[in-house]
Amino acid sequence: MAGEYGIISAMQRLISAIQSAKSLVALTGAGVSTFSGIPDFRGPQGLYKNPDAERIFDIDWFDRDPAVYYRGCRELVYGLEKFRPGPVHLALKKLEDLGLMKGIATQNIDMLHQKAGSANVWELHGSPLFHHCRHCGRVATFEEVCKMLAQGAEVARCPCGGAYKPDITFFGESLPEEAFLAAQSAAIRADAMLVLGTSLTVFPAAGLPNLTLKAGGKVFIVNAQPTQLDRFAAGRYGDLKAFADAILAL
Q1: What is the value of pTM for the model shown?
Q2: Are residues 228 and 104 in the same domain?
Q3: Is 135 annotated as catalytic?
Q4: Which residues pair with 167 in a beta bridge?
Q5: How many other C-beta atoms are found inside a 10 Å radius of the C-beta of residue 17?
Q6: Which one is catalytic: 89, 113, 125, 131?
Q7: Distances from the Cα of 90 to the Cαs of 4, 64, 117, 143, 165, in angstroms?
Q8: Which of 53, 61, 102, 223 is the most buried (most CB within 10 A)?
């Protein structure tokens, strides 16, 4: 009982900190989407178990052979319509509805924060919502590309013959400048940041909590695995589901 009481008290302290924050933001990673059935890229069933993993999101490989990307992401990216927001997505939407959450910086490309209804989402690694032809720049929507693949195309191609690449940040490309600058600005202004479902290993996105700390704000980490910022956190928790349940119960 003592251990259970301690966990409850720690979560209550986190809820109190959230409710008293004047400028609260969140940084989310793959862990928040595992509840929706999307595997963590680095988990046991993750994309990085694929033998072509290093090539799938490499821009040079995409230009050499876009089929490597499309084979690797046919289910993960172009099957996103079957996934629904999980408890953490819904909890962050509730914090927004309560007027507590200023915005969400996410490393995810699954668009589930938007599906949950969150209005202010900074997609640090881009989004598959739109695709651009690598040859002529023509734009195709996510739905148009899904239709091409459903009709049997190995690679979604523009009428000019060029391959459509999603507006996801591949290795070798820069992060979306507008989204990243907005997230940086919010992190600096935040008096509290929630770090949810990310082990803070992928930079520069993983550097955002440092901006909050340097500006005098507090960082609260909820993640199953340890992170390099744990010792600087105002609170460290391992159970994302318990966090979401506590928020949804407000």
Answers
A1: 0.89
A2: yes
A3: no
A4: 127
A5: 17
A6: 125
A7: 25, 40, 8, 24, 30
A8: 223
